[in-house]
C-alpha cells in the first residue's frame, strides 16, 4: 500500500487518537506543572484615634478575574509532584530518618495518600492477575469435560461477571455483603460474630475488592483458555496416555505448555485492566480503606474545588506506572520485530 | 485391576470437576438472580434486618404494599426520578460511539493489515500503549480545556471521546481480523483496475461483516459500561445510566431510595443479558481472536 493511501485510510482513526489520547496526555503534563493562583491580597491602612493598623483582606473580585484570565494558574514546575499529596519527598525523607524499623517506615509511608493508593493498586494488580489465570484455567478444564448440551448455558452464565458494567457489578456485590445483606448475614452466622462487617476494616475491604476483581476477571481467562483447549493436539494427549501419564500429568506436561502463550496474553490484558481499577472502589465505597490511583484522580476532580494540578500530577505518575508495567512486553515485541526484519 | 483403579480415579475426577463447575456457575449467577428477585421487594426485605428468609418470602413487602412483589422501585426510578432520560442518553451515546468507532476502525484496521511498512508496526505499538492508559487520566486531561472551550457537558463531546478511547482496541481487533482475509482478494481487484479504496469498497466490505459485528459488540460494551468518561464529562441532564445510578446512591438517606438504585441496576443489566444471549458465539470468538493472533 502506498504511503498516501495508507494515510487517508488511517487518518480519521489517527486524528481521533492524537486529539483525544495523545494531546490530553500533553495537557495532563502541562497542568501538573501549574498550581492555582494565590488569592489577591489588598492591604488597607486603617487610621483611627490610636494610630494606624494595617489590615490585609482578600480581593475576591481581582482573584476571580485573575483565575478566569489564566485558568491554568501559575507555573510551579515540579512542586506538585513532591508535595504531600503525591511523592511527598520531605515526608518520606523524614520518615526514613526517624524510622525505628522498616515496618515502621512503611507504616508511615502508608499514611501518605499517594503511597496508600499505590500500595492498594499494586497489591490488587498482582494478586488478582495470577488468581484470575488459575481460576480461569480450572473453569476451562471443568467446562471442557461437560456434556455438549450443558456447555452453552455454562458459558452463558460464565460470561455474565465479565460483561456486566463494573460499577453495577460491584454495587450488586456491595449490597449483598452489606451487614444486612445476604452474604454479610451469612458470614456473621458462619463466624458467629454479629458485629462482623466487611466494610469496616481495611484488610477485609482489600479482600472484598480482590475477590470482586477475581470474580469479574476470571470469565475472560476462562473463555480464552477454553478456546485454547479446543486446539490441543489430541495425538500428543493420546501419546502421553499410552506412555502411562496420569490425568494430572497430561494436564501438566501437554495441556499447560500448549496454553502458555494464551496465559501471557491474558496476563498482559489483566495487568492493564487491573492497574486502572476504579469502579469497584466507587461501587464498594472503599475509598477510605482502599483507594486506587484512578480513584484519587477522580476524587481530586470531584472535590468542591477541582484540583486540576493535583489530579494531573497523579495522572502523570500513573501513566509512568503503566509504562513501566508494559515495558517488558514492548521490549519483547520490539525484539521480535527486529528479529523478523533481520 | 489397574484399569479399575484408573476408572475409579477418573470418576472421582469427574465428580470433582463437575462440582467445581457447578460451584462456579452458582458464584457467577447467584448475585444477579438475588438482585433481580430483591428488586421487586421493599428495602426492609432486600436488606433483611431480622431474618434473611424475609427476602425470599417478602414479609415486609406484604406488610407495606399488600403484595409479595412490588414494582415500587422501578416506578420510583423510571417515573419519579426520570431514569428514562438517562436510558435515552445512553442509547444515543452508545449508538453513535459504536457506528463511528467501527467506521474509523475498519478503515484504519484495513490499512494497518495491508501495509507492510515499519510505521504500521509502530502505530500498533502506540495503540497498545494508548489501550493501557487509565481512562481517568485522560479525563483529567480533558476537563480544563473542555471547560474553557465550552465543550463540557454535551453529548457529542462524550461520543467523540469514547470513540477515541475505543480506537486502540478497535484497531487491534479489526487489524487481526483483516489479516485473515486473503490479500489476493483485493490484489486481484487492483489488477482488474480498482484503486485501493475501490478494492476496499467492492471486495472487502462485503466480506468483513462477521469481524465488524464482533468488534462492534466490544465497542458497545465499552461505551455502555463506561463510568469515568460519562460521569465526569456530561452535565446532569445529559448523563447516562451508569452515572445516574451513581447519583441515586448519593441520595440514599431516604428510606426506599436505595431500591430505586437496585431497580435501575436491574434495568441497566437487562440489555447486557440479551446481548450475551444472542451474541455469545461472537463474544467468545472475539475474545479468542485477539489471543490467537495477538
Task: Tag the structure with descriptive keywords.
heterodimer, A: 342 residues, mainly alpha, MetI-like fold, 15 helices, 4 strands, 6% strand, B: 294 residues, transport (chain B), MetI-like_sf (chain B), BP-dep_ABC_trans_perm (chain B), cell membrane (chain B)
**In CATH, what is the homologous superfamily of the largest domain in chain B?**
MetI-like
Strand content of chain B: under 5%
Largest sheet of chain B: none
Envelope shape of chain A: globular
What string, H for helix and E for strand, traces the elements of chain A in order? HEEEHEHHHHHHHHHHHHH
- Assign the structural class of chain B, choosing from mainly alpha, mainly beta, alpha/beta, alpha+beta, or little secondary structure: mainly alpha
Number of helices in the DSSP assignment of chain B = 15
Radius of gyration of chain B: 25 Å
In helices, the fraction of residues of chain B equals: over 70%
Describe the structure.
Chain A: Belongs to the binding-protein-dependent transport system permease family. Chain A: It is found in: Cell membrane. The complex is a heterodimer of chains A (about 350) and B (about 290). By secondary structure, chain A is mainly alpha-helical. In chain A, about 70% of the residues lie in helices and about 5% in strands. In chain A, the strands form 2 sheets. Chain A has a two-stranded antiparallel ribbon. Chain A has a two-stranded antiparallel ribbon with strand order 2-3. In chain A, α1 packs antiparallel against α15, α10 crosses α12 (about 245-275) and α12 packs across α15. The mean pLDDT of chain A is about 90. Chain B folds into 3 domains: about 1-30; about 40-70, no CATH class; about 75-295, MetI-like fold, CATH 1.10.3720.10. The radius of gyration of chain B is 25 Å and the shape is globular. Chain B starts with a helix and ends with a helix. Chain B is built from 15 helices and no strands. The longest helix of chain B is centred in the N-terminal third of the chain and has 37 residues, at about 1-40. With about 290 residues, chain B is mainly alpha-helical. Chain B has helices at about 1-40, 45, 55, 60-65, 70-80, 85-115, 120-130, 135-150, 155-180, 185-190, 195-205, 210-225, 230-235, 240-250, 255-294. In chain B, α6 packs across α12. At the A-B interface, α1, α6, α7, α8 and α9 of A face α1, α6, α7, α8 and α9 of B.
Amino acid at each position: 500500500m502506498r504511503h498516501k493511501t495508507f494515510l487517508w485510510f488511517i487518518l480519521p482513526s489517527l486524528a481521533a487518537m492524537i486529539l483525544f489520547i495523545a494531546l490530553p496526555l500533553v495537557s495532563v503534563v502541562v497542568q501538573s506543572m501549574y498550581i492555582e493562583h494565590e488569592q489577591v491580597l489588598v492591604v488597607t491602612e486603617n487610621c483611627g484615634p490610636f494610630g494606624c493598623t494595617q489590615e490585609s483582606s482578600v480581593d475576591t473580585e481581582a482573584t476571580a478575574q485573575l483565575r478566569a484570565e489564566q485558568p491554568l494558574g501559575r507555573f510551579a514546575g515540579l512542586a506538585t509532584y513532591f508535595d504531600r499529596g503525591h511523592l511527598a519527598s520531605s515526608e518520606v525523607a523524614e520518615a526514613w530518618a526517624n524510622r525505628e524499623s522498616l515496618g515502621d517506615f512503611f507504616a508511615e509511608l502508608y499514611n501518605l495518600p499517594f503511597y496508600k493508593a499505590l500500595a492498594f493498586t499494586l497489591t490488587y494488580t498482582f494478586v488478582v492477575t495470577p488468581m484470575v489465570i488459575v481460576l480461569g484455567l480450572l473453569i476451562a478444564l471443568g467446562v471442557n469435560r461437560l456434556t455438549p448440551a450443558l456447555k452453552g448455558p455454562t458459558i452463558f452464565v460464565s460470561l455474565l461477571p465479565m460483561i456486566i458494567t463494573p460499577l453495577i457489578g460491584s454495587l450488586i456485590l456491595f449490597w449483598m455483603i452489606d451487614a444486612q445483606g445476604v452474604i454479610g448475614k451469612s458470614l456473621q452466622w458462619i463466624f458467629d460474630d454479629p458485629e462482623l462487617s466487611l466494610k469496616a476494616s481495611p484488610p477485609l475491604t482489600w479482600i472484598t475488592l480482590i475477590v470482586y476483581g477475581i470474580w469479574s476477571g476470571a470469565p475472560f481467562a476462562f473463555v480464552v483458555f477454553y478456546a485454547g483447549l479446543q486446539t490441543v493436539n489430541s495425538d500428543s494427549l493420546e501419546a502421553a496416555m499410552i506412555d502411562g501419564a496420569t490425568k494430572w500429568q497430561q494436564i501438566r506436561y501437554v495441556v499447560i505448555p500448549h496454553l502458555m502463550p494464551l496465559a501471557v496474553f491474558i496476563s498482559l490484558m489483566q495487568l492493564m485492566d487491573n492497574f486502572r481499577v476504579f469502579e469497584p472502589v466507587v461501587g464498594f465505597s472503599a475509598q477510605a480503606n482502599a483507594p486506587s490511583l484512578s480513584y484519587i484522580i477522580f476524587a481530586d476532580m470531584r472535590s468542591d474545588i477541582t484540583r486540576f494540578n493535583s489530579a494531573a500530577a497523579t495522572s502523570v505518575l500513573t501513566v509512568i506506572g503503566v509504562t513501566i508495567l508494559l515495558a517488558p512486553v514492548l521490549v519483547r515485541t520490539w525484539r521480535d520485530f527486529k528479529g523478523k526484519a533481520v | 485391576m489397574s484399569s479399575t483403579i484408573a476408572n475409579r480415579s477418573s470418576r472421582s475426577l469427574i465428580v470433582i470437576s463437575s462440582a467445581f463447575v457447578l460451584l462456579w456457575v452458582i458464584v457467577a449467577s447467584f448475585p444477579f438472580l438475588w438482585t433481580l428477585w430483591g428488586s421487586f421487594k421493599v428495602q426492609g426485605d432486600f436488606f433483611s434486618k431480622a431474618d434473611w428468609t424475609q427476602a425470599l418470602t417478602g414479609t415486609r413487602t406484604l406488610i407495606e404494599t399488600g403484595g409479595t412483589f412490588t414494582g415500587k422501585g422501578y416506578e420510583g426510578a423510571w417515573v419519579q426520578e426520570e431514569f428514562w432520560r438517562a436510558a435515552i442518553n445512553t442509547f444515543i451515546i452508545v449508538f453513535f460511539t459504536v457506528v463511528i468507532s467501527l467506521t474509523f476502525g475498519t478503515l484504519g484496521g484495513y490499512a494497518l493489515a495491508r501495509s507492510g511498512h515499519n510505521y504500521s508496526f509502530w502505530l500498533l505499538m502506540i495503540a497498545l500503549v494508548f489501550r493501557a492508559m487509565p481512562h481517568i487520566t485522560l479525563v483529567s486531561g480533558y476537563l480544563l480545556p473542555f471547560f474553557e472551550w465550552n465543550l463540557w457537558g454535551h453529548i457529542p463531546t462524550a461520543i467523540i471521546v469514547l470513540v477515541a478511547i475505543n480506537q486502540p482496541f478497535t484497531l487491534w481487533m479489526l487489524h487481526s481480523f483483516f489479516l485473515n482475509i486473503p490479500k489476493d482478494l483485493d490484489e486481484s481487484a487492483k489488477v482488474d483496475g480498482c484503486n485501493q479504496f475501490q478494492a476496499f469498497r467492492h471486495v472487502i466490505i462485503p466480506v468483513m461483516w462477521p469481524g465488524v459485528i464482533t468488534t462492534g459488540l466490544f465497542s458497545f460494551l465499552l461505551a455502555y459500561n463506561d463510568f469515568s468518561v460519562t460521569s465526569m464529562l456530561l452535565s446532569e441532564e445529559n448523563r447516562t445510566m451508569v452515572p445516574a445510578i451513581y447519583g441515586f446512591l448519593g441520595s440514599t438517606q431516604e428510606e426506599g431510595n436505595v431500591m430505586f438504585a437496585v431497580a435501575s441496576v436491574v434495568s441497566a443489566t437487562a440489555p447486557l443479558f440479551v446481548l450475551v444471549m444472542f451474541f455469545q458465539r461472537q463474544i467468545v470468538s472475539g475474545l479468542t481472536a485477539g489471543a490467537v493472533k495477538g
